[in-house]
Amino acid sequence: MSELLAKRRMKNVLLFIPNMMLLCARLLTDPRVPGTEKALLAGAIVYAIIPFDLIPDMIPFVGQIDDAYLIALTLLRLMERTDPKIVREHWAGGGDVVELVGAAAMLAGKFLPKPIRRVLTSRVEVAPDKAERGGGISKLILVARPEKESEAVSSK
Fold first, then answer.
1. Sign of CA dihedral 73, 10, 4, 2
2. Cα dihedral 118/13/58/69 (nearest 10)
3. How many CB atoms neighbour CB 41 within 10 A?
4. How many Å apart are CA 132 and CA 126, to the nearest integer?
5. Residue partners of 43: CB distance under 8 A and separation at least 6
6. Fewest CB atoms within 10 A around its CB: which of 69, 74, 77, 96?
């Protein structure tokens, strides 16, 4: 029984990247996804494809972490501004994509140096109506908040 579970998990890991690419392609063509979110998602995909970015992709494992982090943050933002059900409809992989994306953002964020996390999250915002309610995905969307200059100076 545990062998079957292990095989299923391995299959999900191996198909993660193809399933994420399929998810992104489907979201880019879904008319329910706002244009701004499509543009941000397309930008994150381009960032992931280009080999020279904040952490060059030529560095094994580490080079892909910033790409995964930015795509995960972009998907979290998209789920904040649309219904997460839309993302779930397009997910072909195993497990709950909302939880998976949140976990990927948190895990990738732990491996990234703080300055890079700040650069990647400096423009990410929680939707105003979701911030007021304080529930849902908004807790996951900002893994690291950028420090304000006044706070950084006063803490030194």
1. negative
2. -10
3. 21
4. 10
5. 74
6. 96
- Which residue's entry shows tokens 């195993």? 94
Supply the pTM of this predicted model: 0.68
Q: Using the structure block, give the residue that is written with the tokens 């193809």.
A: 18
The C-alpha angle 67, 102, 125, rounded to 5 degrees, equals 80
Residue with the two structure tokens 């420090």: 147
Sequence letter at residue 65: I
Interaxial angle between packed helices 114-121 and 62-81, expressed in degrees from 0 to 180 and rounded to the nearest 10? 30
pLDDT in tens, 18-49: 788 889 889 999 999 999 999 999 988 888 88
The whole-angstrom separation of Cα 135 and Cα 131 is 8
Length of the chain: 156
Q: What is the pLDDT of residues 82-139, one digit of tens each?
A: 999 999 999 988 888 998 888 888 888 888 788 877 877 765 554 445 444 444 444 4
Residue 20 class from Cβ within 10 Å (0-12 exposed, 13-18 middle, 19+ buried)? Answer: buried
CA dist., res. 85 & res. 8, Å (int): 24
